[in-house]
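We both want to read discrete structure tokens more fluently, so let's practise on a single case. Would you write everything just below, so we can both look at the same thing?
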Amino acid sequence: MSARPRPLSPHLQVYRWQMTSVLSILHRGTGLFLVLGSVMIAFWVVALALGHNIFASYQAWLGSLLGKVLLAGWSFSLFYHWANGIRHLLWDAGWGYEIERVYMTGWIVVLVSVVLTGLLWLLPVLG
């Protein structure tokens, strides 16, 4: 007796990504990055307590390209998580379940996150 082939689960080649699933994954990822970024900021405070030389070294590392990229990613994560948290509070209140509003508020969350991150990083340079 031959075994019937079992159906395959959807995988990345056939799965059609949806905005809702992408934003959900991004929310979880930014939450994880917020924890890692908070540890990086906590090390900054510890370096301050350990003395001028260690603090200056850590400050120089934070001012490097890698440090700035990590801090920019941390600030984007902070703004995204904040904006998406407000979106979830609106859902908890029963507003925004219509598919058009889900997509509209999703784009608003992404736009707000990008704009606030850009303002945070560009205003000191411009001003």
Summary: The CA atoms of residues 79 and 116 lie 7 Å apart. The chain has a mean pLDDT of 92. Residues 19-50 form the longest helix (32 residues). DSSP finds four helices and no strands in the chain.
